[in-house]
Amino acid sequence: MTEQQNTGGDLPDVSGLSIGILGGTGDQGKGLARRFALAGHRVTLGSRKAERAQAAADDLTAGADAGLTITGADNADAAGRSDVVVVAVPWDGHRALLESLRDELTGKIVVDCVNPLGFEKGKGAFALPVEEGSAAQQAAAVLTGSRVVAAFHHVSAKLLLDPEVEGMELDVLVLGDDREATDLVQALAGRIPGMRGVYGGRLHNAHQVEALTANLISINRRYKAHAGLRVTDV
Length: 234
Known about the structure:
Number of domains: 1
Helix content: 25-40%
Oligomer: single chain
Protein backbone atom coordinates (compact mmCIF):
# COMPACT_ATOMS: atom_id res chain seq x y z
CA MET A 1 0.00 0.00 0.00
CA THR A 2 1.46 3.37 -0.97
CA GLU A 3 1.49 6.36 1.34
CA GLN A 4 -1.16 8.25 -0.63
CA GLN A 5 -3.42 5.20 -0.75
CA ASN A 6 -3.00 4.80 2.99
CA THR A 7 -3.83 8.43 3.81
CA GLY A 8 -6.51 8.99 1.22
CA GLY A 9 -5.31 12.21 -0.36
CA ASP A 10 -2.63 14.28 -2.07
CA LEU A 11 -0.40 14.60 0.97
CA PRO A 12 3.25 15.67 1.31
CA ASP A 13 6.25 13.37 1.26
CA VAL A 14 7.32 13.13 4.91
CA SER A 15 9.74 10.22 4.58
CA GLY A 16 12.80 12.27 5.54
CA LEU A 17 11.43 13.95 8.66
CA SER A 18 12.95 13.32 12.07
CA ILE A 19 10.57 12.88 14.99
CA GLY A 20 11.01 13.73 18.65
CA ILE A 21 8.71 12.27 21.29
CA LEU A 22 8.33 14.05 24.61
CA GLY A 23 7.29 11.49 27.18
CA GLY A 24 9.12 8.93 25.13
CA THR A 25 9.72 6.59 28.05
CA GLY A 26 6.00 5.86 28.51
CA ASP A 27 4.30 3.06 26.60
CA GLN A 28 2.47 5.39 24.19
CA GLY A 29 5.62 7.32 23.39
CA LYS A 30 7.72 4.19 22.97
CA GLY A 31 5.05 2.57 20.81
CA LEU A 32 4.83 5.52 18.43
CA ALA A 33 8.62 5.74 18.34
CA ARG A 34 8.90 2.09 17.38
CA ARG A 35 6.36 2.39 14.55
CA PHE A 36 7.87 5.57 13.13
CA ALA A 37 11.35 4.05 13.27
CA LEU A 38 10.08 0.94 11.49
CA ALA A 39 8.79 3.31 8.79
CA GLY A 40 12.33 4.66 8.36
CA HIS A 41 12.24 7.83 10.48
CA ARG A 42 14.99 8.94 12.83
CA VAL A 43 13.36 9.14 16.25
CA THR A 44 14.55 10.77 19.46
CA LEU A 45 12.92 9.84 22.75
CA GLY A 46 12.74 12.67 25.26
CA SER A 47 12.65 12.47 29.04
CA ARG A 48 13.58 14.66 31.99
CA LYS A 49 16.79 12.64 32.22
CA ALA A 50 18.74 11.76 29.10
CA GLU A 51 19.97 8.51 30.68
CA ARG A 52 16.42 7.29 31.19
CA ALA A 53 15.51 8.16 27.60
CA GLN A 54 18.56 6.36 26.26
CA ALA A 55 17.72 3.27 28.32
CA ALA A 56 14.25 3.23 26.77
CA ALA A 57 15.77 3.65 23.30
CA ASP A 58 18.17 0.77 23.95
CA ASP A 59 15.27 -1.39 25.07
CA LEU A 60 13.35 -0.63 21.88
CA THR A 61 16.28 -1.39 19.60
CA ALA A 62 17.09 -4.76 21.15
CA GLY A 63 16.11 -8.13 19.73
CA ALA A 64 13.90 -8.18 16.64
CA ASP A 65 13.97 -4.39 16.30
CA ALA A 66 17.75 -4.09 16.33
CA GLY A 67 18.90 -1.57 13.77
CA LEU A 68 16.08 0.92 14.25
CA THR A 69 17.24 4.52 14.48
CA ILE A 70 16.01 5.48 17.95
CA THR A 71 18.08 7.49 20.41
CA GLY A 72 17.42 9.10 23.79
CA ALA A 73 17.97 12.65 25.03
CA ASP A 74 16.60 15.08 27.54
CA ASN A 75 13.36 16.76 26.51
CA ALA A 76 14.97 20.01 25.39
CA ASP A 77 17.50 18.22 23.19
CA ALA A 78 14.85 15.89 21.75
CA ALA A 79 12.65 18.87 20.87
CA GLY A 80 15.46 20.94 19.40
CA ARG A 81 16.92 18.24 17.14
CA SER A 82 13.62 17.03 15.61
CA ASP A 83 11.54 18.28 12.68
CA VAL A 84 8.23 17.22 14.25
CA VAL A 85 7.65 16.82 17.98
CA VAL A 86 5.00 14.55 19.52
CA VAL A 87 3.77 15.33 23.03
CA ALA A 88 2.93 12.10 24.87
CA VAL A 89 3.41 13.13 28.49
CA PRO A 90 1.00 12.52 31.40
CA TRP A 91 -1.69 15.17 31.63
CA ASP A 92 -0.61 16.44 35.03
CA GLY A 93 2.78 17.50 33.65
CA HIS A 94 1.54 18.80 30.29
CA ARG A 95 1.51 22.57 30.78
CA ALA A 96 4.71 22.78 32.82
CA LEU A 97 6.72 20.79 30.27
CA LEU A 98 5.52 22.83 27.31
CA GLU A 99 6.17 26.10 29.12
CA SER A 100 9.75 24.96 29.71
CA LEU A 101 10.27 24.17 26.00
CA ARG A 102 8.79 27.23 24.29
CA ASP A 103 12.10 28.22 22.69
CA GLU A 104 12.98 24.72 21.47
CA LEU A 105 9.49 24.23 19.97
CA THR A 106 9.17 27.61 18.26
CA GLY A 107 8.56 27.19 14.53
CA LYS A 108 7.98 23.44 14.79
CA ILE A 109 4.92 21.28 14.20
CA VAL A 110 3.91 19.95 17.62
CA VAL A 111 1.57 16.94 17.68
CA ASP A 112 -0.36 16.67 20.94
CA CYS A 113 -1.79 13.22 21.73
CA VAL A 114 -2.47 13.80 25.43
CA ASN A 115 -5.85 12.75 26.84
CA PRO A 116 -6.91 14.59 30.02
CA LEU A 117 -8.60 11.74 31.86
CA GLY A 118 -9.48 10.85 35.42
CA PHE A 119 -10.17 7.41 36.85
CA GLU A 120 -12.70 6.57 39.55
CA LYS A 121 -12.84 3.18 41.23
CA GLY A 122 -15.91 1.28 40.11
CA LYS A 123 -16.74 3.82 37.39
CA GLY A 124 -13.70 3.80 35.16
CA ALA A 125 -12.23 6.58 33.03
CA PHE A 126 -13.82 9.97 32.46
CA ALA A 127 -12.83 13.18 30.69
CA LEU A 128 -11.44 16.01 32.79
CA PRO A 129 -12.38 19.65 32.20
CA VAL A 130 -9.62 21.80 30.69
CA GLU A 131 -9.69 25.58 31.03
CA GLU A 132 -8.58 26.11 27.44
CA GLY A 133 -11.03 23.49 26.16
CA SER A 134 -8.64 20.60 25.50
CA ALA A 135 -5.04 19.53 25.96
CA ALA A 136 -4.30 20.51 22.37
CA GLN A 137 -5.78 23.98 22.88
CA GLN A 138 -3.72 24.34 26.04
CA ALA A 139 -0.63 23.45 24.01
CA ALA A 140 -1.54 26.08 21.40
CA ALA A 141 -2.07 28.69 24.12
CA VAL A 142 1.34 27.97 25.63
CA LEU A 143 3.26 27.44 22.38
CA THR A 144 2.21 30.55 20.48
CA GLY A 145 5.19 30.22 18.13
CA SER A 146 4.48 26.57 17.22
CA ARG A 147 2.03 24.90 14.85
CA VAL A 148 -0.02 22.66 17.12
CA VAL A 149 -1.90 19.64 15.76
CA ALA A 150 -3.97 17.11 17.73
CA ALA A 151 -3.62 13.45 16.69
CA PHE A 152 -2.89 9.84 17.77
CA HIS A 153 -5.29 9.89 20.75
CA HIS A 154 -6.93 6.51 20.14
CA VAL A 155 -3.96 4.31 19.30
CA SER A 156 -3.32 1.31 21.55
CA ALA A 157 0.14 1.43 23.10
CA LYS A 158 0.08 -2.35 23.55
CA LEU A 159 -0.52 -2.92 19.83
CA LEU A 160 2.11 -0.34 18.86
CA LEU A 161 4.69 -2.23 20.90
CA ASP A 162 3.64 -5.75 19.88
CA PRO A 163 6.11 -7.18 17.31
CA GLU A 164 3.48 -9.67 16.15
CA VAL A 165 1.12 -6.86 15.08
CA GLU A 166 2.24 -5.77 11.62
CA GLY A 167 -0.58 -3.34 10.76
CA MET A 168 -2.53 -1.06 13.09
CA GLU A 169 -5.78 -1.07 11.04
CA LEU A 170 -7.31 2.15 12.32
CA ASP A 171 -7.90 5.78 11.44
CA VAL A 172 -6.23 8.66 13.27
CA LEU A 173 -8.28 11.83 13.61
CA VAL A 174 -6.05 14.84 12.90
CA LEU A 175 -7.18 18.29 14.04
CA GLY A 176 -5.64 21.72 13.63
CA ASP A 177 -5.95 25.25 12.30
CA ASP A 178 -3.00 25.02 9.89
CA ARG A 179 -3.84 23.04 6.74
CA GLU A 180 -0.21 22.42 5.80
CA ALA A 181 0.51 21.09 9.30
CA THR A 182 -2.55 18.80 9.42
CA ASP A 183 -1.72 17.43 5.96
CA LEU A 184 1.79 16.64 7.13
CA VAL A 185 0.55 14.83 10.26
CA GLN A 186 -1.99 12.89 8.18
CA ALA A 187 0.89 11.78 5.98
CA LEU A 188 2.94 10.77 9.03
CA ALA A 189 0.05 8.61 10.26
CA GLY A 190 -0.03 6.98 6.85
CA ARG A 191 3.60 5.94 7.20
CA ILE A 192 2.50 3.29 9.72
CA PRO A 193 1.09 0.22 7.93
CA GLY A 194 -2.68 -0.08 8.21
CA MET A 195 -3.06 3.40 9.68
CA ARG A 196 -4.71 6.35 7.95
CA GLY A 197 -4.80 10.01 8.97
CA VAL A 198 -8.22 11.63 8.57
CA TYR A 199 -8.80 15.35 8.99
CA GLY A 200 -11.16 15.79 11.94
CA GLY A 201 -11.71 19.54 12.11
CA ARG A 202 -10.13 22.59 13.63
CA LEU A 203 -8.36 22.58 16.97
CA HIS A 204 -11.43 23.76 18.89
CA ASN A 205 -12.95 20.35 18.15
CA ALA A 206 -10.17 18.49 19.99
CA HIS A 207 -12.03 18.17 23.30
CA GLN A 208 -14.47 15.52 22.14
CA VAL A 209 -11.70 13.56 20.42
CA GLU A 210 -9.62 13.49 23.60
CA ALA A 211 -12.69 12.66 25.70
CA LEU A 212 -13.69 9.75 23.44
CA THR A 213 -10.65 7.90 24.76
CA ALA A 214 -12.58 7.29 27.99
CA ASN A 215 -15.29 5.51 25.98
CA LEU A 216 -12.71 3.37 24.20
CA ILE A 217 -11.19 2.38 27.55
CA SER A 218 -14.64 1.22 28.66
CA ILE A 219 -15.07 -0.75 25.43
CA ASN A 220 -11.68 -2.37 25.86
CA ARG A 221 -12.41 -3.40 29.43
CA ARG A 222 -15.82 -4.84 28.63
CA TYR A 223 -14.74 -6.75 25.52
CA LYS A 224 -11.09 -7.41 26.44
CA ALA A 225 -10.05 -5.67 23.24
CA HIS A 226 -7.81 -2.90 21.90
CA ALA A 227 -10.47 -0.92 20.06
CA GLY A 228 -9.70 1.78 17.51
CA LEU A 229 -11.71 3.87 15.05
CA ARG A 230 -12.51 3.59 11.37
CA VAL A 231 -14.19 6.42 9.44
CA THR A 232 -16.46 5.18 6.67
CA ASP A 233 -17.16 6.63 3.20
CA VAL A 234 -13.95 8.67 3.11
